[in-house]
Write a structure and sequence with these properties.
The protein is 0% helix and 54% strand. The chain has 93 residues and is mainly β. It has a single domain, classed as Beta Complex (Metal Binding Protein, Guanine Nucleotide Exchange Factor, Chain A), CATH 2.170.150.40. The strands form 3 sheets. It has a 4-stranded antiparallel β-sheet, with no helix packed on it. Strands 2-1-9 form a 3-stranded antiparallel β-sheet, with no helix packed on it. Strands 3-4 form a two-stranded antiparallel sheet. Strand 5 and strand 6 form a beta hairpin. It is globular, with a radius of gyration of 12 Å. Pfam families: NTP_transf_9.
Length: 93
Amino acid sequence: MKATWNNAVIAESDDTIVIENNHYFPPESVKQEYLQSSETHTTCPWKGLASYYTLNVGGKENKDAAWYYPEPKDAATEIKGYVAFWKGVKVSE
């Protein structure tokens, strides 16, 4: 699977985990140079507290377009640190 935005490959992996129709990419498959930490957090009742990244590619910013669970609840431990995308990021094979 590949995550692209603004003509750049943000993440690429054959080992994503699909939960609720979102592909979660292993942390080592995500190009960290495109990620900026965000102060945004949301809570999922069964996954726990999510943290966000803003994407910065070619001088363009996509606020909070990626999220991950640094310390997920027991039901979601398999996605600890894995990164998922939305807000116009294309995830495809």
